[in-house]
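Crash report, auto-generated. Payload:
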Amino acid sequence: MYKLLAKDGRAKRGEFHTVHGTIQTPVFMNVGTTAAIKGAVSTQDLQEMKTQVELSNTYHLHVRPGDEVIKKLGGLHKFMVWDKPILTDSGGFQVFSLAGLRKIKEEGVYFNSHVDGRKIFMGPEESMRIQSNLASTIAMAFDECPPHPAERSYMQDSVDRTTRWLIRCREELNRLNTLEDTINKNQMLFGINQGGTYRDIRIEHAKRISELDLNGYALGGLAVGESHAEMYYIIEETMPYLPLEKPTYLMGVGTPENILESVERGVDFFDCVYPARNGRHGHAYTNHGKMNLLNAKYELDSAPIEEGCGCPVCRHYSRAYIRHLLKAKEMLGLRLMVTHNLYFYNNMMEEIRGAIEEQRYAEYKKNKLNGFAQGEE
Amino acid sequence: MYKLLAKDGRAKRGEFHTVHGTIQTPVFMNVGTTAAIKGAVSTQDLQEMKTQVELSNTYHLHVRPGDEVIKKLGGLHKFMVWDKPILTDSGGFQVFSLAGLRKIKEEGVYFNSHVDGRKIFMGPEESMRIQSNLASTIAMAFDECPPHPAERSYMQDSVDRTTRWLIRCREELNRLNTLEDTINKNQMLFGINQGGTYRDIRIEHAKRISELDLNGYALGGLAVGESHAEMYYIIEETMPYLPLEKPTYLMGVGTPENILESVERGVDFFDCVYPARNGRHGHAYTNHGKMNLLNAKYELDSAPIEEGCGCPVCRHYSRAYIRHLLKAKEMLGLRLMVTHNLYFYNNMMEEIRGAIEEQRYAEYKKNKLNGFAQGEE
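Recovered output after restart:
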């Protein structure tokens, strides 16, 4: 399903074929936690924002409106009106970060809903059933996200359990994909490599899960408090032990700088809430660094956020207007910011793909980082 | 500038020519208080929502970002990227409803800003200067909006002062329209008829302001607490004393029913916050009455808000999806609701125009009201 089109150093340029169309990698997935992009961006809008993949959160959709509801409505694609690929996470990360009191057992995790406090159990089989109901293109394996920092012995036990869970996930998804009333019988599974910043645990785990011949492999449990240098080191050391002929996904990362560094180390897929969250706080990404649109110096500035930007916002609206909307707390201000930022990320990925194809990635990355360093902030 | 194309009973079908294009009447103006439609609807979106005229609020824009700022940026049209007609209110209504302590004097009104409490003075000349800075297509005269109910003697004094203010408005706007740095030298002025529910004061006032040969005439101070029957009575009694060859505008009204009744009495222009405000509260307008999208019965409903509706929302999204967005407090839910509701109003006005042209307005109105009465709520 994955075709490696070009390499430039360790940077990969690939094509990932799915039942919902082909994903050109490296790719940034646009986060729509509850089946909606934050900032009032619609799936119709995504069409003109170079979005290739939408990412939704299994835990949130399980709690509300419920994956059974979405299944009855024909699955996530039909529900949110998006016919391109969708990746769903496993729910694991939210269970470990959002939910109330929880107990981790061999069978799975017992926890309380963050919405109404009701008790929920989720294990590998439950996560697969929920994701099968959602009928996403790519399901993520249910794993434990260990705390950072974690003792070596805790980490080793956790990673071992994550491996056992992964095998159960694969088995359950294979079964679900053969059921008659399954909406997407070609749902794919990505496994998740864990191990924190323990190089040897990461590598050992990468080797073990690579043997399972999954559709793709993610690095989880990074960008959780370790330094950027540690993160890059772990990516660099672990990546050679994941199959080159499968896509790799660095979960929840990150800044444009993080992405540029990680692409260089062979990552295909990314996702992060930064472009939407920072947009809502008035921060716009540009090729000359981040801009704070709330800054008084933009009060009379009739230029777009970034000259030459082809996004639907920069083609029409000025810094002064967006600043006014943000100051007046008009929702439209948030929408315009999020739109620009997601486009910026998606467009950067397109540039990255071009640079790898043309074997000029190192130079591209250097110029891009120099631009960011001019930082308007 | 106004051309009466057809009459059906007292219902008027007109065309109002402005420097920003022709307005087909009857028309519903879409309210964008702070130079933005509530609910994250952009001026680009308005293009596919049959919007003819955008209405912005002078008081709000004077306070933030400031009319001088907007003038320096080339006026409201350029600021919010909308090249069709814009009507600005006079600021009077907000001064009388939003602002803190105020004193009404012959020269104008002293009051405190609702944003930062600073003292502001606004009289006829100030209102005209602000609206000239905003460079709207149509400026509204600065008037007093008397409280309801008001003593007869208070009302008479207030209306007399409003007439004196109107004359000062006309004089000042004429002067401003000749200044070299005025952005819209063809800015038009609508006078406002007042008098509460006192029939004779209304009529006397209508006669006096009609002599001033303004570009249009509004009925103000209605829908402020009187019954619908009283409102319709006042419209019916007053309208014959306003010039037939000028457009009439019923300010701040109202429900689809109110509009149908008022068109029948000769009204050309309407504006109201209902479609946007009700949309944000989950209420959708349809030809079968209002629907509450939060209602549990829509949880699994894959139909659009209204079958056959041509709005950008009904062409794509389901009741179930919109209900989910509203429940999850996703901004996108508000945007989809507001979009549908504004389209519903704009589309109804188009139907109204067709019905008047074809001399079947009474029948159209009857059928429409019957449909609303099926009310899903």
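Post-recovery validation: The CA atoms of residues 192 and 218 of chain B lie 5 Å apart.
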